[in-house]
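Appendix B. One record, verbatim.
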Amino acid sequence: PDSLSGRCTRAREQLHIPGMVVLVVDRDDIVRNEMLGFRDVEGRKPIDPDTRIYIASCTKPFVACAAALLAAEGALDLDAPVRRYLPRFTLAEASYADSVTVRDLLCHRPGLAHKAITFGDAYTGEMTEDRYYRLLAGVHPKRSFSYSNLHYTLVGRVIEAVTGKSWKDVLTERIFRPAGMTRTTCSATEFWADANVALPYEYEQGHFVIASPRK
């Protein structure tokens, strides 16, 4: 039978992925952990167990976990209106905004999306709270499931309102450190300053080229 590493290597080549980690978990045990390919294609530097890899929206489960921990401790009510924690929260349909709960946000149920907010929050680092809520007030909810970053940037703000700390610090203190995730960070500055980082690539005309933007 074909080996797992062989299948993954072919998939990596077919999908033009410069480097990847394959992790197989059986209940609480890691039974397979393989690093394939390169974090730096030009330098031929391989992926290793300490390589930091940008995980983008895979951050969302960690944010949800933090919210669930706070709920289990009674510090946060997932079925409470978002406005209980974020008084400035409103939408183009103010009456609907009154009914949106934290759990709704976690499940992407309101169908909230705004490209400018997502771009400003995720890519520029220049999103202010005043700008965020001013743009949010113009969002028309779809009132049905629609995946978007906006739901989770709101949950992050709920976590900050409940704890008085940055959502990034809460994830570090409550999830990463207890789990022994010493190479995990929510800070882009810390991430890109690390020497052992998987560089972002695009595949063009048979070659890997450094992607722009970095995310």
